[in-house]
Write a structure and sequence with these properties.
This protein has two domains: 14-45 and 135-306, Multidrug efflux transporter AcrB transmembrane domain (Multidrug efflux transporter AcrB transmembrane fold); 53-131, Alpha-Beta Plaits, CATH 3.30.70.3220. The chain is 61% helix and 8% strand. The protein has 13 helices and six strands. The chain has helices spanning 2-10, 21-41, 48-51, 66-75, 107-119, 133-162, 165-188, 195-225, 233-243, 245-269, 273-306, 322-330, 336-341, and strands at residues 45-46, 53-59, 84-90, 93-100, 127-131, 192-193. Helix 4 runs antiparallel to helix 5. Residues 336-364 have low confidence and may be disordered.
Length: 373
């Protein structure tokens, strides 16, 4: 166990990520399928800022309860079944938040006065916020445009940084994968999508791309190192992912810990609902982004690059166990004769070092016989 951890910290593990790429693709495909089905079946629970509506917040005083607030809505001919009522806590203070669809002119003021009377407070103590559906559609359109511009800018950046469209394609597919799964979580569990959620999604994209570019940068470095040594692209991908695995884990854990604090302490202990909306999206997205950089983006890059003329002849050749350790240490693949005779193909990276090809010959080659005249 200690040896395995030390190899992990030194980037010397020999996990066959690329060889198991279909497992990751299958898991992601199932999750994306669930997302699509959920979006068609029940859609997204869009917040008031996107679909429009009216929101009231009334202090919990004078014996007012959620049931009494619902009765006030029904008395004013408002469909209470479509309304969202929840109790917000902040220290010793509690407020009832009521969200409804758009109301006719004057109805919102009437409900505000009725809530103030039921709670024994002044009308000004009951907050009222109205958002038109037109403004909500405008916010939705701008959010989609911002996402498209972001994807285009990132594609161009990766293309010019690494000078490869294959990397840009793989990175964007991973980003879309992360957004799809994050949206799927919100759809399946009926979580409300607010502007804070959109901000969190954009933050997720940045983190996902950062982790992916870290791996891609190591892939480029190893391509230069293994140039001319007949190492397959699958081996380059595997070696690169193992070398940055600890860095990816450290980055992900460091990012998830403060998000968990926001979710558990900010939302659970202190009752800040806005923090919960933001932190939950971050939690799902950060975990998905760390996963996609290893199991989606880099394996997809390997598939695309293996079809190029430079690596097509070595397509499907993957070194595992001691063979991968040999590639990692020497920068060259194990020869076929050595592999068959000497290599221990277990997954233990501490296996006996592979001997040189010349060690196969135990005696000097026999001289050729001279031909008779």
């Amino acid at each position: 166990m200690a040896g395995g951890m030390s190899r992990l910290f030194r980037g010397e593990t020999t996990i066959n990520f690329y060889g198991r790429r279909n497992v990751g693709f299958l898991a992601s495909g199932l999750l994306v399928l669930v997302t699509i089905i959920s979006l068609f079946a029940q859609g997204l629970n869009l917040g008031m800022d996107f679909k429009g509506g009216v929101a009231f917040e009334v202090p919990v005083k004078g014996g007012i309860t959620v049931a009494k607030a619902r009765k006030i809505l029904e008395d004013n001919k408002i469909n209470a079944n479509n309304a969202k009522l929840q109790v917000l806590s902040s220290g010793n203070n509690q407020r009832i938040r009521i969200q409804t669809d758009e109301l006719k002119s004057g109805v919102a003021s009437t409900v505000q006065a009725a809530l103030a009377k039921a709670s024994g407070t002044k009308v000004n103590d009951v907050s009222l916020a109205e958002v038109s559906s037109t403004w909500g559609r405008s916010v939705t359109t701008k959010a989609i445009k911002a996402l498209l511009v972001f994807i285009l800018a990132v594609s161009l950046y990766i293309r010019f940084k690494f000078k490869q469209w294959n990397m840009a394609t793989a990175a964007i597919v991973a980003v879309i994968h992360d957004v799809a799964i994050s949206v799927g979580v919100y759809s399946v569990f009926g979580l409300e999508v607010t502007p804070a959620t959109v901000v969190a999604f954009l933050t997720i994209l940045g983190f996902s791309l950062y982790d992916t570019i870290v791996v891609f940068d190591k892939v480029i470095e190893n391509m230069d190192r293994f140039k001319g040594s007949r190492v397959s692209y699958g081996d380059i991908v595997n070696v690169s992912m193992n070398q940055v695995l600890m860095r990816s884990l450290n980055t992900s854990i460091a990012a998830l810990l403060p998000v968990l604090s926001l979710l558990v302490l900010g939302s659970g202990v202190f009752g800040a609902v806005a923090l919960r909306e933001f932190a939950l999206a971050l939690l799902v997205g950060l975990a998905t982004g760390a996963y996609s950089s290893i199991y989606i983006a880099t394996p997809l890059l390997g598939i695309l690059k293996e079809r190029s003329s430079e690596f097509s002849t070595m397509r499907g050749q993957i070194s595992v166990g001691a063979e991968m350790a040999h590639v990692m240490a020497t920068g060259a693949p194990v020869s076929r004769r050595v592999r068959a005779a000497e290599v221990n193909t277990s997954s233990d990276a501490t296996a006996v070092p592979v001997p040189a090809v010349e060690a196969i010959l135990s005696h000097p080659p026999r001289p050729r016989k001279k031909s008779r005249k």
